[in-house]
From TrEMBL:
Residue segments, region Disordered: 195-263
Annotated ranges, domain VWFA: 269-454, 471-640
Protein name: Vitrin
Ranges of Polar residues composition bias in the record: 228-239, 252-263
Amino acid sequence: MRSGHLSVSASKLVLEIVLLVTGIHSNKEVAKKIKRPKFAVPQINCDVKAGKIINSEFMVKCPAGCQDPKYHVYGTGVYASYSSVCGAAVHSGVLDNSGGKILVQKVAGQSGYKGSYANGIQSLSLPRWRESFIISESKPQKGVTYPSTLTYSSAKNPAAQAGEATKAYEKPSITGTTTQPVTLTQALAIPVAEATHRTTSKPLAASVTSSPRPQPVGHRSQEMGLWSPTSYAGSQHSPGSHPGFVPKEELSTQSSEPVSQGDPNCKVDLSFLIDGSTNIGKRRFRIQKQFLADVVQALDIGPAGPLVGVVQYGDIPATQFNLKTHVNSQDLKAAIEKITQRGGLSNVGRAISFVTKNFFSKANGNRGGAPNVAVVMVDGWPTDKVEEVSRVARESGINVFFITVEGAAESEKQYVVEPNFSSKAVCRTNGFYSFNVQSWLSLHKTVQPLVKRVCDTDRLACSKTCLNSADIGFVIDGSSSVGTSNFRTVLQFVANLSKEFEISDTDTRIGAVQYTYEQRLEFGFDKYNSKNDILSAIRRVGYWSGGTSTGAAIQYALEQLFKKSKPNKRKVMILITDGRSYDDVRIPAMAAYRKGVITYAIGIAWAAQDELEVIATHPARDHSFFVDEFDNLYKFVPRIIQNICTEFNSQPRN
């Protein structure tokens, strides 16, 4: 009986285990059947602003193609709620232009949003905003439920929703009256009838009488007709906005917040040469000033960033204000509004010459370490020539940009004083420095491209540096003691030094003299204007052989080589010899000093150290070098280049 009882108990236990396992399996099957649907990340457009979305934390998917400067972005790292969500994601590097998913978290408002240019998006500065947000990669936090449908503030009011894009923002006016940004929640407080009155379903068709902004003109012979002031500002302005929509505490450029120090990624000294000729007319002149104000706003002016001065030209040029007069965007815009038209001819060449000689000086706020940029604005065409004065400007280290608006039509080209004046004037003819604008109505489209280019300091090719602003003359000993093999080693040394410089007709130029008892000009500064041509010319120099008259060689180089040096170039002589001179070197060396020639003396093997120190510019320790063997010449290339640059950088920029 006991064994039977145990058998029955065992059977019950097995049955219970089977039922339990079956139940667990069944529950898993049920769980599979009732598994929650996969979370769908809501998609938004490129221009949707964080302030429009009520949710405090959410994930969204941005489409491709948001790397476009028309989407407003304010801040770096922490963004103002008026910023485009996707634009901020691209600017911060979380997304590229192919789009993708991001995590957005609302945070408290910030003071002094700093702007910068990054990843194809120019973010702007802003004194303060009451709500901010941060962007990160789409990695959901544990325990956080993200909405699959976003809640928009405009959903409460159809009229506000229809006009959302038009109510959100208006830039500070050029008149000095600061208009305020408007969030959607504030716009909702406006009665529907009032909102309908202030917005329009055709934002480009507003009457010119609806806004105090300047009225642009199209072609010189066209009447104004109907045109919206907001179409001039493009993406920078929105129709229908009104300063009364926002409490003063929301955003005020008159706040006690610290003034922006400027964008350190755009540290340039910038001169605008504006057209004040009679021909431009009052309306176009106002549009030109508004364009200038928009550029100033986008640049984020400050002591640590870009500084701007303005020169107006007509018959004669005049400085409206220099680089250190106004050191923030707000003051600059107020000063721009006060500029009055001078009238007269359109003497652009005269203006460029004036800027080259007078504007970029320490007294006017030139900082030396910042690239010099001149943006020349021209209505139509100049009434004088620009080629020669622009060459001098470029050689003085000024990066010349041209913005030509409504250039000469085919029938008008007969009146142009200098054909292709723009290409003759700009820093480089690769298109980077030139803007040809078909109509004053479309000038606003040039704001962001111009800002991007003047801030791209790596491409400002005309900035003076130790490597692109000298006339370098090599004086090479070809005496019998050198020998054919060693002479080729010397030429390789000359080539190695030349490679380090930026060579062109407007940058560094290279010339060479070979000497024995006699002297021979191998090639002058104006013979070759590319690095490849220079290196080829050096290889072709033939060994002469003879005595060693170093003093006569220095005098010859001064007369035949450096006499043709350009006035804005630093004159550098690099003399290479392997022995003591048969003639006196003191008087020629003193003549070189008096002519402003900086002399480096390189002695090899049997060269006399005391003679090298006489030839070299003071201090001799920085300008004279001795090498025991020809084969060791190459080791001194970096040190010589370093000394040339150290000396250059210790001197005034212009």
